[in-house]
Amino acid sequence: MNKWLVSVTVMLPTLIEIIDTSVVNVSLDHIRGSLSAGIDEATWTITAYLVSNAIIIPMTGWLSRFFGRKRYLLFSVSLFTVSSFLCGAAWSLQSLIVFRVFQGMAGGALQPISQSILLETFPPAQHGMAMAIFGVGVMFGPIIGPLLGGWITDNWSWHWIFFVNVPIGVISVLMILFVIIDPPYMERMKMKVDYTGLFLLAAGLGCLQIVLDKGQREDWFSSSLIIWLSVISLSCLVFFVIHEMYAETPIVNLRVFRDYTFSSGNIIMFFAFFTLFGSLVLLPLYVQTLMGYTAYMAGLVLGPGGIAAMIAMPVAGQLITRGSPRAVLAFGVAVAAFSVHLMSRFSLQADIDAILWPRILQGVGLGFLFIPLNVVVMSGIRKENLANASAIFNLLRNLGASFGVAFATTLLARRAQFHQSRLAEQLVFLDRPFSESLPEIAQKLQEKGFDLSNPDQGAMALIQQELLRQASMLSFNDTFYVLSVMLFFVLPLILMMRTTVSAPQQNG
User: Whole-prediction pTM value?
Assistant: First the structure.
């Protein structure tokens, strides 16, 4: 079968699934108004999708063997298509949340299956190109999702962000039927169902995803709900790991972590997406709240970085076939970390060029990071275990993104409070230099056209407003800096990885 036709077949539904992880965000206010719901209630449409998606991803390898990979892929795309139509036709918030759960369950398998099929279809010498194709979808989806969702919602209605999936889903089903062929080792197998592992995994990851999505809004451990969900998640995941190590037919084969390359690569991927999504959530906030950009302009700030990543990926794919994948990977990690460090030097006077170039540099770094990392990590995995290894790899990538967003938003809020307190220490009338300077400040403000009925109070209000802006800017600087340092620290892990792609190993 033509490898390019296979690539289009598996990546078309995968791209739509990735887009759907972020497409709802910009339409949330319209959904809330249309279905007469509060903003906290409406956010469950996002959480429901992320939770069900996270639960299914690590099970993909087992489900592919249990049902047969092609049969399971057909079922997943079909369910995703039907649930997308039902989401668009939802008559209440409750019905939309239920249909989003089914949509997330259907979409969870698409990324791991697509990656494993691409690695099987392309010969080892072309694995770099295969992962470049996969990487374009992974990187492009989160960027185009908000822009596409905003455009569709503004020009049509929020219902169409789901309806547009239907014709693409139908085409994907037909292509899978005629293009995808299962190798003998991925056909349906009779296996005993590990119900204990299934329950522990679903409860552990489900609670964890809710904690990450709702934690900042609920002020983390000030909320009894977050505390209980955290305890349940930690307990279930610990018992899950212990249980799976001794299970006869584990839901997730954790023995693959015996491969040091695979283990190191998962850690690097976790922190790479931790930093990427942490910075992706900060950039729009920075340019909108402090620089006065519109939502559309904020989206355009992210775009060049995505384009840079898509250009860098094929280049990286070619380089790793001619040199050391580990060297290309180290370069990608260093450039990505340095780009976020540059973001930590943003200011309230930054122009568009000063904001765009670090984002473009980040895209280049991620392109050179993503491709060699995927190729090297999967190089020691037997073909029959690719679906399981890919599922784990994709799970940790997605968890890295979720942890990164939660960490970045929390640190941003905490550092803003710290800087506000520190800067406000001298802004009191009892401080003589400050109180004596108020008339002069008020006079300068009036000369610039400000109408101050009470000069001292007016000057004080404007000073406090500027204080909040300065404190917020400093908190952005701090958060970007911490994210960059965390990514720099994974560089030594590259030394634990094999220098060249070797023959697959026996790893359970």
Answer: 0.77
